[in-house]
Specification:
This protein is α/β, with parallel strands linked by helices. The protein has a single domain, classed as 4-Layer Sandwich (Purple Acid Phosphatase, chain A, domain 2). 29% of the residues lie in helices and 21% in strands.
Length: 268
């Protein structure tokens, strides 16, 4: 298996964040959440060596040859600022922004991944993925993903006028209950959580210390066999949680004015 090794510098940390779904449920509401995420990135830039954006940064994203979706200027500008400071940015494409192409790579210098990746950091072994489509079940989504990633389907969508295409895409994206988190408020149990099942299967043949995913929205840290840990990063819709690794991994909540947005406790 291919693996990327990151040698952590003294005093530096690795940060993880996922499922911001910017653009939903509407631009005005989204901008409030975008401001919090920008503040968080501004805080971590002083000690971050690496930032992993683990998918669904946007509720919908599509790149035409000369056009990208309107908005997100300050978010993208802050990511570019971090990259210009020498912070490595790794972006995992999620199920809402799976039509990401080369914009972030060419304009900002991010490294974009479309599948799970293996990393070694601080002597620990990591498996990182957005998480969609992994493990058993969810056959309906897996069939839908095959359609969305089909080159012919993408070709037809690209020929729609961007105003029409974005209107259709945003409507369909926001109809998905994933943005509300309503389907992710309850822990289903180890035998039904598809990413936990997937992680346990991997442990049978590989040594992994940390499995880190987005997608599930419900923040959690669970110890698996052999002291491996399953981690879901939560989201920036209800929880505003993020991960940080230096000598070990911690799941934290970004502190903000509690009057500004609802806050829920992290499930550990």
């Amino acid at each position: 298996m291919l693996k990327t090794t990151i040698n952590l510098e003294p005093g530096k940390k690795v940060y993880f964040a996922s499922d911001q779904h910017f653009g939903a449920p509407d631009p005005k509401t989204s901008k409030v959440r975008e401001e919090h995420f920008i503040r968080w990135m501004d805080e971590i830039k002083h000690d971050a060596q690496v930032l992993f954006l683990m998918g669904d940064l946007f509720d919908f994203w599509h790149e035409w040859k000369h056009v990208i979706p309107k908005g997100y200027v300050r978010v993208l500008g802050k990511i570019a600022e971090l990259k210009d400071r020498g912070i490595h940015i790794y972006f995992f494409v999620g199920n809402h922004d799976l039509w990401m192409k080369d914009y972030l790579e060419e304009e900002i210098g991010c490294t974009v991944f479309y599948t799970k990746q293996y990393f070694e950091m601080g002597g620990k072994q990591f498996l990182l993925a957005h998480g969609d489509g992994l493990g058993p079940g969810d056959k309906g989504y897996k069939r839908m993903k095959k359609v969305f990633t089909n080159p012919v389907a993408q070709w037809f969508f690209r020929w729609l006028h961007p105003d029409i295409a974005m209107k259709i895409a945003l409507y369909m994206s926001q109809k998905n209950k994933m943005i509300s988190g309503d389907e992710d408020k309850e822990f289903l149990g180890e035998d039904k959580e598809f990413l936990i099942i997937y992680s346990k299967e991997k442990l049978r043949t590989q040594r992994i210390d940390y499995f880190i995913y987005g997608h599930r929205h419900l923040p959690m840290v669970m110890e698996l066999e052999g002291k491996a840990k399953y981690i879901n990063l939560g989201d920036w819709i209800s929880y505003f949680t993020y991960g940080v690794f230096e000598h070990d991994f911690q799941l934290k909540t970004f502190e903000m004015n509690k009057k500004e947005l609802p806050h829920k406790e992290v499930i550990l």
